[in-house]
Amino acid sequence: MARITIDPVTRIEGHLRVDVEVEGGIVNKAWASCTMWRGLETILRGRDAREGWVFAQRFCGVCTTVHAVASVRAVEDALSLEIPTNAQYIRNLILIGHALHDHIVHFYHLSALDFVDILQIPKADPAKAASIAEGSSSWTGNSRQELAAVQSKVKGLIASGQLGIFSHGYWGHPAMKLSPEVNLILFSHYLQALDFQRKSCQVVAILGGKTPHIQNLAVGGVMNAINLNSLATMNMDRLGMLKSILEDLIPFVQQVFLADTCLLAAYYPEYLHLGRGVANYLAVPDLPLDAKATKFDLPGGVIMGGDLSRVRPIVNWQDAEFRKAVTEDSTHAWYQGGGPLQPYKGEQTPDYTDFKEEAKYTWVKAPRYNGSPMQAGPLANVLVGYASGHALTRRWTDTAFQRIAAVNGLKVTPNDLQSTMGRYLARSIRSAMLSDLALKHLELLTTNILDGDDTTYNAPNFPSGEIMGMGMHEAPRGALSHWVVIDKGVFTNYQAVVPTTWNASPRDEKGVPGPYETSLIGSPVVDAEKPLEVLRTVHSFDPCMACSCHTLDTSGKEIAEVKVQ
Amino acid sequence: MSPLCVIGLGNVFLGDDGFGPLAIETFRCEYEYPASVEVLDLGTPGLDLAPYLYDKKIVIVVDAVHSDASPGTLSIFHEEDFLSLKAKLRITGHDPGLWDSLAHLRLAGHAPEELIIVGVNPITCEFGEQVSFLIQDTASRAAEMIATSLAGHGIPCPPRDSPTEPDLWWFRMGCLERATAM
User: Testing the interface with A: which of B39, B91, B98 to mutate, by most A Cβ within 10 A?
Assistant: First the structure.
């Protein structure tokens, strides 16, 4: 039996340690440990509730807008404050821009190299690669010349002997299976993706004032002034600019990103049957369509035990079960206390003990839904949508299945999505959906403004007694909720239950492990020194540890280690 | 997008790691600069740094660094200094960061033509602390280094006749009381 410690897992945001025990080439036990403490919730206590979002968007350097929006929604919920329709649409567009950006970066820059072998690229025939790529999408950036140019850059890089950031890849690993041509196609899109990462940032910047820290939010709406006759405000020019950026960005998402994940699925079908993990899924409703947030473009719901025939819908943000069902348990986390607490009563007094697998071993608490661990993320979002018959989700999921079948005849079912590869596919399916929704919400905003509505803000009034509220957002990494207790306009408690906490959860008081831990059981490990298969499954969740446990590592250590005992 | 960019990196809640944002706010308030220069507090963006470096002519990054110099030392580095490991950017909770973004952009043919790093060796990067006094004192000199570097590239940045007060919301909002007791 071998014990493998990967510390830190590279190509993620933040610091994560993963330990697995391998018996006969198969993982039979796993632990996920976050090695950084978070203290921002402590900092938020005693702050003015109107300005909480400014702090909350520094929870994480990457998911800034996500926390900003969840924070204002939590305060608005506590106040039962409705926000103007324009404010809903503007926030929705910001959230979509951010999510597209995030999903593109995750697939190409944080995980593609788990499947793409750079050292195979020189062997590719660019003409053959171009014909494969043109067969799988109508994208115009797949010409033979384009691919040959990328190939020559990679040849130059390899010849220089200075692979730089690419020097730590598991090149030549027996679990790498793409042909040289497909390696070339995916790496070429890896480079092109940088331009589209930039374009999705521009969407956020035009509406949010600045990126990555937006400036336009307020408890009660947004601070974008709308005046079709003024250059300095939201006017037809700005709206037109947004439309043209989206029209550039969307073909890349729908024709390239989606096609690439379909190529991966066709070449790595075994990953449609690996990494299922916790088959309970949680998605929250998002992209509200009206001021009162009664209708949503992304459905929420709960699926238990992988049973796609039954979805318990979460129809709106007031959902009573959700508010009662969510708890966090510190039995195996480095905090005082143990058993489950509701977020409104949540505590985080540190109690660090070093890594003790039978006791406390991580800074991440164990969130539970009616006592069960849940998987959050694009997969939960897509499965809840698919299982509840949501037309847009079905259309893009079925499109993905057809594309995979077109590559090599592989038949994929919704049930197969409950896997490591399913998480990659779901992220691109969701991105294709969000692309359509971006255009829809831009149209809704434009129409509403042209109809004469220029309101964006309703001023909040804080009562003197204690009030509580919860704000939800279906973030790029999944269901996010901020829970606040406010007295005289000041936070007296603040808890964020973030997607990576759901997924990176440790064992709970009953000893039940979380999604990362469960998903690794049964994973093959061909080479214990190079646990590529483990990384593929961990990366499929898109770990972002910064807000699940906040930053405290100040040692400046440069470590990237796999330790085998 | 502007061809010139001054970027502050760092987490404003982590003591001296907040040097970058502090220094660029100081530059913004103490110097005049043309509209072609963007001055940005990017926090700890990880790979999300790439869009801000894309096709830029000159990028000046201000950050806490690790080098052999003593804490509080302010230095100017060029890309080669980091490639030859003379200095190391602080590894934050948000790696991968600058080097990965640069390597990607270089391969894609969109890297900045020139990268200059103004770095300070931190004293402490404790959560919930303010930038230490010694490091705060270097912010004006860092701002001057930014101005001088830009001037050296033909972009004059004279000191403002009447400097404005930097809007350091993370100081102003009193989020870091412990530091004032130091």
Answer: B91
Q: List, for residues B138-173, the tens digit of each pLDDT value.
A: 999 999 999 999 999 999 999 999 998 887 877 765
Reported as a single tens digit per residue, the pLDDT across B25-61 is 999 999 999 999 999 999 888 888 999 999 999 999 9
Q: Residue B30: which domain range?
A: 4-180
Q: What is the pTM of this model?
A: 0.94
DSSP, residue by residue, A276-342: -----EEE--EEE-STT---EEE-EEEE-TT-TT--EEE-STT-HHHHHHEEEE-TTBSBS--S-B-
Interface of B with A (CB under 8 A): 11-15, 17, 40-48, 50-51, 54, 66, 88, 90-94, 96, 99-100, 103-105, 107-108, 110, 124-128, 169-170, 173, 175
- Å between A62 CA and nearest CA of chain B: 5
Contact flag A61-B45 (C-beta cutoff 8 Å): yes
Query: Quick one: tokens of B108?
Result: 């894609």
d(C-alpha A146, C-alpha A157), whole Å: 17
What's the gap in Å between the CA of B108 and the closest CA on chain A?
A: 5
Contact B103 A10 (CB under 8 A): no
- At A60, the pLDDT band (50, 70, 90 cuts) reads confident
Q: Which two tokens stand for residue A159?
A: 């010849």
**B99 contacts A164? CB cut-off 8 A:** yes
**CATH, residue B145:** 3.40.50.1450
CA distances from A69 to A133, A204, A469 (A): 38, 13, 14
Chain B neighbors of A167, CB-CB under 8 A: none
Q: What is the DSSP letter of A111?
A: I
Whether A55 has its CB under 8 Å from any CB of chain B: the answer is yes
Contact call for B175 and A43, based on CB within 8 A: yes
For residue A198, what are its two tokens?
Answer: 């930039």
Task: Report residue A546's pLDDT band, with 50, 70 and 90 as the boundaries.
Answer: low
Instruction: Write down the H helix ranges in A221-342.
Output: 236-251, 258-267, 320-325
| CA B120 to chain CA centroid, nearest Å | 9
How far CA B139 is from CA of A38, A191, B67, B149, in Å, comes to 27, 36, 18, 15
- Each domain of chain A, given as residue ranges in start order, spans 2-564
Nearby residues of A172 by Cβ (< 8 Å), 6 or more positions away: A117, A119
Domain count, chain B: 1
For tokens 């220094």, the residue is: B23
CATH no. of A2-564? 1.10.645.10
Q: Give the helix/strand (H/E) hosting A26.
A: strand A26-34
pLDDT in tens, A223-271: 999 988 887 788 999 999 999 999 999 999 999 999 999 999 999 999 9
